[in-house]
Structures are given as structure tokens and as C-alpha cells.
Specification:
single chain, alpha+beta, top7, de novo designed protein, 3 domains, four-stranded antiparallel beta sheet, elongated
Length: 348
Amino acid sequence: MSVRKNISLETEHLKKLEPLVLKHNGNFSAAIREIIDLVDAIVKDPDAATGFIDGLKSDNNLIEAVLYWFIRQTHGRLIDQEILNSILDPVKIVLLPDLEKYLNEMTGGTSWQTKIRIYDYDNEVNPSYVKVTLTGNNVYKTEFLGGMTSSFLVAQKKLEIVSLKRISNTITINFKKQGNTNLARQSLVDYFGEMEDVASEISKKQEFWKCIVNLYKQTNYNMVTIPKNYYNELLMGKEAPGYLTASIEAIHKVPIRDIPSGILISTMKSVYEYMGIVERIDIDENTLKIYHGYTDARAIDAIGKILLNVLNSNGTKYKSRYSENLIIISPIIYNNDEQLISPVVNDF
């Protein structure tokens, strides 16, 4: 026999009941009956109920630990579009205020503890510009949510990231309209996907990279990487080429002469250090201090010429000085009458 009772509930209580009501396809009475059965079981066997609750806590701790591990391991990766759409459904989330509300409802619990604010935009549906601020207590989680939110705005609102600031536990991202999807996507990679290309290449050629990593590990990174055409000339017995520009031009996709001087110098540092051509390059404005790691004078001279020729081919003339451990390359300074002030010296 069914008995009807009137009960009064606050909005917060109704919100807590929502998952259970959804489970029963909107049948509020069925949800209440399940709660009554659960309370009855707790009253009859309190110890069993305590064990059940402890088990739930353990499960939550496990999920939290795995989630945090996953977020750290995928730092610098972009979320797959299919997964993103399942989390932030573009059919349901059209307005920017709705996106902000949904994100805060999703991340407001103890697992995330992140506050997301979307503001300073001109249109709720199709903005020309927008600003997003994320504040949280964990940098990895905040970064992950920043990348996910940015991915949605880039894909669905045709925006690109124009700036990003990280201050303490807060990330602020500025967007503007970008009709070119490739440029918009690249801005996303630049700010949140620095490991995308690396992960993609490793995935495509896993055996190759396993071998390379093992080689470098076993030799304590005492390896040199050079372009194949350069190696070919050495095998043919030719004198070592005076230029080693192919790697730098491949990165920037323009000839050496078209690369701004400051960018060229910073690229030379990273490329030649990681290729193993030299041990270390320190930069003092436009002067390069090169710790070459060689003992043979011919090798030191060859390295000095290679780096000097790369810089000279950029349009600015440089001079070099050598020692047993160090090569210093700096610009040649002229006076107003184009007369040489600092002569070229080969050793010191």
C-alpha cells in the first residue's frame, strides 16, 4: 500500500539528490525509497556501513592518485578532440557564461579546487576577444584545465592565444579571433602543447627512439649528431665543410641570412649543444663563449670556423679567439667611417 507524505527540502538538498533521481529516470519517489533502504541497512548494521564508507574513501583516494599521476605524465600534451567533446559538448555549451558555469561546477569539488573565470568579451556566442583566468591550488591541474579550456575556445570559437601569464597559482590567458585554423592551433601548441611533436614522433617510431635513448644513456650522452650530407662529405675524405647550417635552417624553415641575429644565436646554443658539436655555449649579448671539449688544435680550429661562418653568413661579421678550453666569438666593431676598430685575433 502506498502512503503519500509531503516533505519540504531546501535547494541544496534537491541538488544532492539529482544523481539518484537521474538514476531512477526522474522518479523522485524511487530515489527517496532507495535512500530509506540505505538508512535502514545502516541502522541495522552500523559496522558494515562504516566499512562501506571507508571503502568508498579508499576508492576515491585511488582515483585521485591515478588522476594526478595522469595529469603530470601528460603535461605538455593537448587533449584529443574526441575526448574534449565528450567533456565539453559543443552542442550543449554555446554561450561563454554557460562554459564558465559548467567548468566551475565540474572543478569546484575537493579533487580540483579550481576557480575559472571567463570575462572581458564582446559577444557571448562569437567573441572577437576573451580573457580566461584560472586559480587553483595545484599547478599541474590548473595547467591541464587551462589547456582544456583553451582547446575548446580554439576549436569552437575560432580564437587563438595571444598571451599567457603565470603568477603564483593563477593563469591568465588572452584570446583573439583567428580565422586561420592552423595559426589558431599553433598558438595552442606553443602555450600548452610543447610535447605534442615529441610524443607524436616517439609514437610513430618507437623502436627507433628506444634505440636512440638507450645509446645516449649508455654513452652518458657522449654522442654527436650531424646531418647526413655533412657525414657523407667526411666519408668521401673531403675537408670538413665550413658550414653547419642545415639543422638551424630546418628548424626555422628560412635561410640563415633571414633569421634575426638574436634568435640565430639562441638557436645555435641549443642546437649545437644538443647535437654534441660543443659542450656548452654561454651568451653575453652578441658574444659567444664556447666550451668546445676538444684537445686537438685542428679540431678546435675546425669548430671555430664552423661557428664563425654560420654567424658571418647571417650578415654580421664576427671575429674569433681560441684557447685550449674556450672559443670566444664576438662582433667586429667599426667606427662611423667603416674603419675596423677591433681586429681579428685567432688566439689569446
